[in-house]
Specification:
Blueprint lengths: L1 H17 L6 H24 L9 H5 L11 H14 L1 H14 L7 H14 L9
Helix pairs in contact: 1-2, 1-5, 2-5, 4-5, 4-6
Length: 132
Amino acid sequence: MILNEIKGQIKILAEKHQSIDENDLDAFYDADLIELRAEKMIINYCEQQNYLINGFPTEKKEIEDELEEDYFCRERYQLYLDMLLVEKVDVAELMWCFTSSFWPDTFESKEHYIQCIKEQLESKSFYDVDLD
């Protein structure tokens, strides 16, 4: 049930995102905030499920003062979500809903999307961060 609720909220945010004028610079900022809200819903779900990758994010928050100042950056959370989506069916569902709702013409299918994410992870050069 919770997955359907989150997917419904993501779709509502995607509609707002789609209605933003690409040529309006102020609206560009709004679009980014909408994307962040959708990502945060998925991150919160993953944290509630206690999904960890090498202790990230929950256990790493316990030693936050020992980590670099910007350790909990957006790119690290995106890597976290991408790593989870290849492992967890529920996260793959949420991430596919997010991606296909916000950018409907980017991937031809969920399988293609997951394959692209796997290739990004395997390249070891797509992200400038890691979760070690």
